[in-house]
């Protein structure tokens, strides 16, 4: 568990809610020169799809992709934000294989856009070690995700129109909780190296399943007169990450996992916790946040506009 003092929390909350309510950026805007080579384009972020044969989830995922196809202007590509399937963490190999097959089939049938995937906790196969799954079972852990999508690693970068994207793996093993949010030492080293290598004038975007900075978890976090947040809800190392991002011209950090929506400006970086395609795991809106996805419009000056878009899904049961 992560404990936060009440004073720190209120200070953070005040700033974050202030930004949310007024829509004002608390921090710097890029100079025209800094972002001169960056392009204008749109992409979408579909997170927490949690596809499964039940609850009309596959139909819902298809409806969401069809909605994306109607956007004007059209997005250049889709980012997924993790928790693609429901669920690989505690299932056997047959069910997990079926889920990933379902996911790739629905994707193939309903979009022709390029897709870049980010791993979520529910996409890790077998860490729950149920149904006879052991570390020797084929595809165990993050291997299945890499095999399904043809990735060498669960974290990687790609460039698009003068912007660099860093897709991170924020799911780390935990004896107590099965998983915790954060990066392992190897990935921290890799990220620091990659940020050093990125041309300074090139704006960057990071994507993680579990958020580093968000206020969505706070309103429900009071227990025994303390704000307590599970280590599976947020990534550790947020202060280190936020400093790194602000030093390396990273403009945006996108996450999912919470199935709620916020935008926080912190140290010159916009942190977006995006809502879930599945809403409340295909049972309607989650705490007032309906099924939807993120639309991001990027400008040559390095600025980013985010909208949470719903696609009119009616849950099979609530
Ligand atoms: Fe999720």
Furnish the topology, listing elements before pairings.
Layout: E1 2-4, H1 6-22, E2 41-46, H2 57-69, E3 78-80, H3 93-110, E4 115-116, H4 143-149, E5 156-160, E6 163-167, E7 171-174, E8 178-181, H5 185-197, E9 204-207, E10 222-223, E11 226-229, H6 238-247, E12 250-255, E13 262-266, E14 269-273, E15 292-298, E16 304-310
Parallel strand pairs: 2-3, 3-4, 6-9, 9-12, 12-14
Antiparallel strand pairs: 1-11, 2-15, 5-6, 7-8, 10-11, 13-14, 15-16
Helix pairs in contact: 2-3
The structure holds fe (ii) ion.
Fe (ii) ion binds at residues 48, 50, 83, 257, 259.
Characterization of the model:
- The structure is a single chain.
- The protein has one domain: Metallo-dependent phosphatases (Purple Acid Phosphatase, chain A, domain 2, 4-Layer Sandwich).
- With about 325 residues, it is an alpha/beta fold.
- The N terminus is likely disordered.
- It has 6 helices and 16 strands.
- The strands form 4 sheets. Strands 5-6-9-12-14-13 form a 6-stranded mixed sheet. It has a 5-stranded mixed sheet with strand order 4-3-2-15-16, with no helix packed on it.
């Amino acid at each position: 568990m992560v404990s936060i003092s009440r004073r720190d929390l209120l200070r953070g909350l005040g700033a974050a809610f202030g930004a949310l309510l007024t829509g004002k950026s608390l921090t710097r805007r890029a100079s025209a020169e800094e972002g001169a080579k960056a392009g204008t384009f749109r992409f979408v972020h579909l997170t927490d799809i949690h596809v499964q044969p039940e609850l009309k989830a596959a139909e819902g995922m298809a409806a969401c992709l069809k909605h994306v196809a109607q956007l004007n202007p059209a997005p250049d590509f889709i980012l997924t934000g993790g928790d693609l399937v429901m669920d690989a963490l505690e299932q056997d190999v047959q069910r997990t294989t079926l889920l990933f097959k379902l996911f790739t089939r629905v994707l193939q049938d309903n979009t022709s856009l390029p897709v870049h995937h980010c791993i979520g906790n529910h996409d890790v196969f077998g860490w729950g070690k149920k149904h006879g799954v052991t570390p020797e079972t084929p595809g165990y852990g993050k291997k299945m995700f890499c095999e399904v999508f043809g990735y060498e690693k669960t974290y990687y970068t790609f460039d698009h129109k003068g912007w660099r994207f860093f897709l991170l793996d924020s799911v780390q093993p935990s004896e107590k909780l099965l998983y915790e949010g954060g990066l392992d030492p190897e990935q921290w080293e890799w990220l620091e190296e990659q940020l050093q290598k990125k041309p300074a004038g090139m704006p960057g975007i990071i994507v993680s399943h579990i958020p580093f900075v968000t206020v969505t978890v706070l309103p429900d976090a009071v227990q025994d007169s303390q704000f307590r947040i599970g280590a599976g809800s947020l990534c550790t190392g947020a202060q280190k990450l936020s400093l790194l991002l602000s030093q390396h011209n990273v403009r945006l950090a996108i996450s999912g996992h919470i199935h709620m929506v916020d935008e926080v400006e912190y140290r010159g970086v916009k942190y977006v916790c995006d809502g879930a395609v599945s809403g409340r795991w295909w049972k309607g809106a989650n705490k007032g946040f309906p099924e939807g996805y993120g639309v991001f419009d990027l400008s040559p000056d390095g600025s980013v506009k985010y909208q949470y878009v719903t696609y009119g899904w009616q849950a099979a049961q609530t």
